[in-house]
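Researcher: Good morning. I'm working through a list of sequences from a screen, and I'd like to move beyond sequence-only analysis. For each chain I'm collecting a predicted structure so we can compare shapes side by side. This is the next one on the list. No need for commentary yet; just the structure.
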Amino acid sequence: MSVQEVEGGRFVRQPNRFTDRITADGSSGFPAESGRYRLFVSYACPWAHRTLIVRRLLGLEDAIAVNVVDPIRDERGWRFPERDPVTNAEFLSELYLATDPSFVGRYTVPCIWDVRTERLVTNDFPNITTTFETEFAALHAPGAPDLYPEALRPEIDELNDLVYRTVNNGVYKAGFATSQDAYGEAFDALFDTLDRLEGRLADRRYLFGDDVTEADVRLYPTLARFDAVYYSHFKCNLRRLTDYPNLWAYARDLYSIPAFGETTNFDHIKRHYYVTHPNINPSGIVPKGPAIDWT
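Model: Good morning. Structure tokens for this chain:
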């Protein structure tokens, strides 16, 4: 986090710099082609986690290559454990600056590199998963789920907006707040929404019934990190995820799906948050707990 992202004691996420779109018909200049794009992610980052889930659910592993950065980030940004074999980059920042030499800010994941034009197409995380679900439809595996059904899109978008503001980004608003009022506002909004989601899941398996949708993909990464990181590190400590019977059962149900569970790396998650936020955890000590059985 940079100091520019705190205004009046409140965390304000920096805008996404690269917002070009990949389209099925190629009208954007970036056609949805197999083998053309590289997805850069961190297992620690919830925004990147959702792209890994969707890529796996839709069977896009062969169509969209992926490279995972090291969980420990310093002032140079995300580093690749080994140089990226296609771009030869050691740090993600090199790809940002190759695309826009004037870029100033955090070098964020997820982002997508176009191998053909040798530039970043997008780091616009809210739209990457829906792009995979719609524009890459011709490349989906046979029998892939419809995560963004057209008839439900207005309702999914409405719920996603609430969850983003109060839960996904809400934990950051609480954790990075530098005033008591800002922290309190974020804290109250977070748990109000979690309480509402707990009630919503009382009579349904997933957020929109019996099938996983984009809404579940967006909520899960925050739930997966909640007790391990957000409860203590970000002071979101009114209740744990495990204190919510319906949300906890729902999260474990999703975890049992390989696309969710096998992309959840608690080691990367804990090391990233506790080591790379010295303003919150100056000692850099990574806690050994909590002991939670997700299976």
